[in-house]
Structure formats: C-alpha cells, structure tokens
Amino acid sequence: VRESRTEEGAPRRARPDPVASGLGGFAPGGPTSLLRPEERRTLRAVCDALAPAAFLTAPAQGESTPAASDLGVDRWIEAALASVMSFREAKAFRRLLRSLDDRLANLLLSGRPVRFRSLTSAGQTKYLQQWRDSRLASKRSGFQSLKRLVGFLYYAVPGPEGVNPSWAALGYPGEVPAASPSGSDGLSVSSIEPDRPLSLEAEVCVIGSGAGGSVVASELGQAGIDVVLVEAGEQPEPGSLVPNELAMTQRLYDAAGLFATRDLSVQLLGARCAGGGTFVNWMTCLRPPAPVLREWEGEHGIRGLTGPEFAQDVDEVWRALGVNDQESQRNPNNEVIWRGCRALGYRYGLDYDTIARNAVGCRARCDFCGFGCRFGCKRSTPLNYLARARASGVRMLFRTEAVRLESSGSRVTGVQAVHRSSRGASFPVQIRARAIVAAGGAVQTPALLLRSGFRTRGVGRSLRLHPTTAVSGEFAHDIRPWAGPPQTVVVRRFLDLEGSGTGFWIEAAPAHPGLFAMSLPWTNGLEHHRWMRERYRRSSATIVLLRDPGAGTVRIDREGRPLVDYALTASGRALMIRGIQETGRILAAAGARSLGTLHADRVEVRAMGETWTNAELTAFFDAVSARSLGSNRILLFSAHFTGSCPMGAEARKAPVDPSGALRDAEGLFVADGSVFPSAPAVNPMITIMAMARRAARSILAYLRPRA
Ligand SMILES: Cc1cc2nc3c(=O)[nH]c(=O)nc-3n(C[C@H](O)[C@H](O)[C@H](O)COP(=O)(O)OP(=O)(O)OC[C@H]3O[C@@H](n4cnc5c(N)ncnc54)[C@H](O)[C@@H]3O)c2cc1C
After folding, report:
1. What's the 206 CA to ligand 1 centre distance in angstroms?
2. Which site from 199, 275, 456, 543 is most exposed, i.e. has the minimal number of CB atoms within 10 Å?
3. pLDDT per residue over 390-434, tens digit each?
C-alpha cells in the first residue's frame, strides 16, 4: 500500500492493487495514519461515549472500568482503517466522523446544528441513540459501524498487563494456560515460499484451500494430476495458535473479522487461512437433506445427487473428517437448548438431535475451537485432504492471493497472484494451467471472476446466506457461552414450515467477550458495561438460522474487492420473527429468567416467577412481532456463504453447468459453496466437500477425456 498526501494534508492511502486486504491484522503503532487530528478527536469522543469510564457498584462493588480510549480502542480502530478496511470503507468512515462533529451536517441530518464533541455526556448518549434508531438507513449503519468496533475491541484488546482489564469482572478466564497442546495444530506440509517473482506451470491451479478447494486438490493430486494450489491466508505454524479472540480473529478471518454487507446489516464471518472455513468452524457435521438434493436434481438438473455415487461422496467426506458423536458433550450453552426441547415434548431424533462433529480426542479441553485447534483434534482439511494432496505431490503456496485469471478468448490460461512473505514483502506469482478451479468461497469466488472479466450471466447474483440472529436466555446459573464444544444440539423441527421448503433451525454459538459485546444492543455506555459484567456469563448465545427464499448479490468495488448486499424479503422477515419466538420458547422452557434479542431497540422480557406465564411469553412474542427487521434494526450474521455462482442445467438461470464448469469459459471450474442452486438448509461444510468430490470427477474427465 503506497502513501500519498491529500490536499488537506492528511495522509491518504493510495488505491492499492485490486486484491483484498492481504493478510488481515491491525494494531496501533503501524506506520500508516489515516485520520486528521480533528477526525481523531471525534473518534476518541465517540469511543468514550459508547464505552465510558465508569465506577460500577454491585456486584462488582467499587470497581472502576476504563474508558475506551484508556484502552487505546480509538487507536486500534484507526489501525483497522489503515490496514484492513477498503478504500471505500475508510473514506466513508472518515466522512462519518467529520459529519458527527459538523454543525451543518447535523443540521441537515437531524435538524440541530450541534457538534458531537461539544455535547454533554448525556447529550452524546442521546445523540447516539437517535442515530441508532434513525429513520435514515445511513445514520443507523453509521451508528452500527462505531458501536460494533468499540464493543468488540473494548472487550478484546489487551490492557497494559497484556490481559483485557474487563475479563476478570466478566468471569472470563481469557488465555488460560491450558495444558500444552499435544497434537499438531496445523498443517505441517511443505509449501513454496517465493522470495522473488515466480512463474509456475501445472495442469490445474486450485484457488483456495477451504472445504471445496482442499477436496478438489486432493482428489486430482491422487489421480496423478499436476496441481498447484494457492491460498490467500496463512498456514499457521504448529504451536503458533494462541487462545486469544482478537489475535486469532485477525489472523484467520477474512478482513480480520471486519467483513459485512455494504450497509452493515449482516456481519459476515469468513475464513482466510489454510483449510478455509474448516479450520475455524464449529465442527457441526450435517448431511445434505434429502429434500434439498431432490430439489437440486429435479428443479436444477444436477443429475446424480439422489443416487449412490453422491451418497458415497458424502460418506467418504464423513469418514475422512472422522465425524462421530462421541465428542458431542453438551456444554451449558447447548444443554439449555436440549432441556428446553425436552420440556416442550419435542421428539428427540426428529425435532431435535445431537450434532455429530469432526472432533477426535477433543475431550472439551479448551474454549477456542473457532480459532483453529491447538490440540489437532478438529479434523479440519489441513489434517486430511490437504495432507493427502501434499503427499500426492500437489504444490502449495500460502499467503498467495489470486488477483485475476488470465484467458485467451474464452479459454482460461493462467492465474496472476501475489505472494506475501512472512516478512511483509510481496512478489508476483504467475501460474499457467490447463484448468483452473475457483474455490475461494461464495463471496471471494464471484469477486475473482468479476475482476477477471467473467461476467457470465448470474455470477454473483444469488448469494445465499442463511441469515442468522441470536436470542439470549439469561439463567440463574453460569452458562459461560464461550466455553466448551461450540455446537452439539440442533433443533430441526421448523425446517420445512408447512411444506414450503423454507424455515429455520436453531443451534448454539460460542461467544467470546468481543463477539458478544459487539452483538449486544447498546442503550447507553453504563448499561452496556453493567450488562456484560453482570449477565454475560449467565447468558446463552442461541442462534436461529434461516433457509429464507431470498438471495443477495456479490459485486466488486473499484479496488476489485467484494461488495455484498443482502436484504430479508417479506417472507424472510416473517421466518425470522417466528424463529426468534420459537428460540425464546425453548429457552423459556429451559428455565431462562429473561429473554433478549439483538434488535437495536432490544426486546427484553423477564419472567417474574420460576416458570414463564402465558402472558409473559406472549409479551415476548408480541414485542418481537412489533419490531422492525429493516437494515440495522437487528443484528444479523452469516458464516454460511453459498449460491453466488449457482449450478444448473439451464444456462439462463445458472452460470455454472452441472459438471461444475463456468459457462462461456473453457477450462474454468467452480468448486466451493458458490455452486449451490439454493440454500442447503444445513451447516454447509459436508455438502460443499461432497459436491467438490463430484466436481473433481468432472475436472478429471475434462483433462483426460478418454481415461
Ligand atoms: C465461524 C464459522 C463457523 C462455521 N461453522 C460451521 C459448522 O460448524 N459446520 C459447517 O458445516 N459449516 C460451518 N461453517 C461454514 C463452513 O465452514 C463454510 O461453509 C465452508 O468452509 C465454505 O467452504 P468453501 O470451500 O466455499 O470456502 P472456504 O472454506 O471459506 O474456503 C475458501 C478459501 O479460499 C481462500 N481464498 C479466497 N479468495 C482467494 C483468492 N483470491 N486467492 C487465494 N485464496 C483465496 C480463502 O482464504 C479460504 O481459505 C462455519 C463458518 C465459519 C466462518
């Protein structure tokens, strides 16, 4: 990233090469400073209004808590602006800071010619509340951008002693010096580490080492094909994973964990490391549902999905990942779902179930599954498919991002990539190949295709997200929602409501303090502090995931980075309301004392007695129905990106044909979640991997037509 100066004299980031942010990571003290002094002062004031210094009383009697700026939260945000956010995002963020402290902008936006920094602390709180609830979508998203960053960083950054000063009060142990890891915590296969520009030739270049890419690379490698695999993220060295939410989010997640839809209405969690999503995910293994496979075969013409060959693909993936239900211990966060379902008389095995997981020898030893497994117990693809690929001669380059594809006419001929060395130097890498497999995930794959000029109809047009929100039940006992195996219980009762093919399912989510605090609705700084200190450890993080009929889009900005848009349709909103209500019903039946949602204007209903009365539950349902689900009126998440380059028999509807090849291109295949013709209605890893095995057969047939 080159530096230049703006007219105002503030350093400005020159437009970088059209690749995403490279290796995530930001910390104060870097060389690049983007903000002008005035902007910096406003940022500091907003941080401290959102998370003020406070002297808290019971139960943490006499405890004082630092202001966000005492922890350097403002400087962390500035660092994120400089190194992680896109040019467009950083520009918009600076504009937001300027408008907060500009009388004219405030007059136009709110009818009052105020300056944020001149307001009293009560005035600043009111000002922020007005932005949170504004009728203007831009004000709501402006509020969310600040609130989420401050919420996350306040509870994640290290204090002067190297430990976040709030953790003790939360009851969060932080970096427990756990028994030293006994297994390998990553892939220890050799990779190519260029120290100068590099040119390679191969039969196939696979882009991305996640669920799809690692399977394809392994299958082709074992069939004797000469494969080069490039992966944008790093391959963590054995022993280098640390039990720390901030450090690992930065190292292993796309855009250092700061990725979201353009309007910020959906926070997007995607991986950027060896193994992709399989390395950081929560190990829920669910087979593709039969009705979904029938739909993909019947309505989209993808033959064979209901037959024995594909069933074998699923079985083989299941075996390779070591999926079992011996490691599905129920921590309190999962136990409350289980207890609620039992209390409601739901049928075990039909309405709710134990989740099988790809964990072997885990024994619930630590609380950091979402950040790679230090004990080598999570059977992510570095330990199976990538290891096999390497053993069969596949050459691998990590920290190497495919920037664009090269082609001659409609035939793809190679990949232009950039390798970033561990010392921070960058080198161009060029790979010439007969076939290219795009497996960067359903957000990055369409972005790569679009910036390479493949604008085949439908690329990026039908992104499916399984939009997700959380309901928290507060219990009398500790839940410690960060601790233990992340997901071991699933509620499937509502997956196919009235035979519509749409519905929702319910699971637990592991929530470390940063993630929980950024999600927790903000009323005022003091209350947010109190909530975290007094209630976080007793709250469940229970999520509802929709198979909604809607779809979003992936386009690219001027830097070539993905721009994602997604809005719930009317029926998606109806499903979300029902999903929140049913989740609340389960948590209430499990003994929650209160129920809360992630609406910006939080719904919170408390039971007065030991059990919920009908009136109390109805009050929760009614409040949920009455809230808007418009953009940034509720926090939505997604970690399930699929469908952005759908596969299908009809060229009019599907840019990828049933063999996995991109139409209008020769030698270009897509083998990741992008190809799903509709949302899979289960956590997608197993389905993506099975589909990738199927794609590998087509690629082999393309390369060796007579074999
Ligand atoms: C926190 C979290 C929890 C999850 N939990 C579960 C779960 O429990 N069960 C489940 O079934 N699913 C889960 N998922 C989802 C699942 O992991 C993903 O759906 C799946 O990994 C997606 O597979 P993919 O091949 O499409 O992409 P990914 O696995 O995301 O792989 C894409 C890879 O490509 C790389 N890449 C992208 N662009 C480029 C480029 N231009 N050049 C080079 N490399 C590139 C990325 O760095 C990444 O490593 C979870 C996901 C997350 C983030």
Report:
1. 15
2. 199
3. 999 999 999 999 999 999 999 999 999 999 998 889 999 999 999
In the block, tokens 């219990």 appear at 475
Determine the Cα–Cα distance for residues 229 and 209; give it in Å rounded to an integer: 7
Mean pLDDT of 294-320: 97
pLDDT at 12: 38
Residues with CB under 6 A from ligand 1: 207-213, 230-233, 269-273, 276-278, 280-284, 370, 401-402, 439-442, 444, 448, 487, 639-640, 672-673, 683-686, 688
**In the numeric block, which tokens belong to residue 246?**
């901030």
Mutate to test the pocket of ligand 1, among 280, 282, 420, 689 (most ligand atoms within 8 A of CB): 282
User: What is the structure's pLDDT at 86?
Assistant: 85
Total residue length of the chain: 707
Residue 645 zone, left/alpha/beta (φ > 0; ψ -120 to 50; rest): beta
Rounded Cα–Cα distance for residues 102 and 100 (Å): 6
By DSSP bridging, strand 284-285 and strand 503-508 are: unpaired
Question: Which residues pair with residue 415 across a beta bridge?
Answer: 405, 431
Task: Give the distance, in angstroms, between the CA of residue 697 and the centroid of all CA atoms in the same chain.
Answer: 30
* The residue to which tokens 């004031």 are assigned: 45
For β-strands 562-565 and 594-597, DSSP reports them as unpaired
Q: Rounded distance, CA 573 to CA 546, Å?
A: 10
**CA dist., res. 521 & res. 216, Å (int):** 42
- Return the exposure string of 110-145: e unless at least 16 CB atoms fall within 10 Å of the residue's CB, then b: eeeebebeebeeeebbebbbebbebeeebbbbbbbb
Residue 158 token pair: 């290290």
Whose tokens are 């992680």? That residue is 84
* Percentage of residues of the chain with pLDDT beyond 90: 82
Return d(Cα 393, Cα 414) in angstroms, integer.
20
| Residue that has been written with the tokens 């561990």 in this structure | 422
Probe target for ligand 1 pocket from 688, 689, 691, with the most ligand atoms within 8 Å of CB: 688
Q: C-alpha 705: how far from its chain's center?
A: 39
Burial class (CB in 10 A: 0-12, 13-18, 19+), 221: buried
Between CA 136 and CA 140 the distance in angstroms is 7
Tokens of 261: 């839809």
Distance 11 CA to ligand 1 centre (A): 35
**Could you give the dihedral angle defined by the CA atoms of residues 694, 699, 702 and 705, in that order, rounded to the nearest 10 degrees?**
-60
Choose which residue among 187, 228, 231, 259 to substitute to test ligand 1 binding: the one with the highest number of ligand atoms within 8 A of its C-beta. 231
Residues 223 and 700: beta-carbon distance below 8 Å: yes
Atom from ligand 1 closest to the CA of residue 403: 41
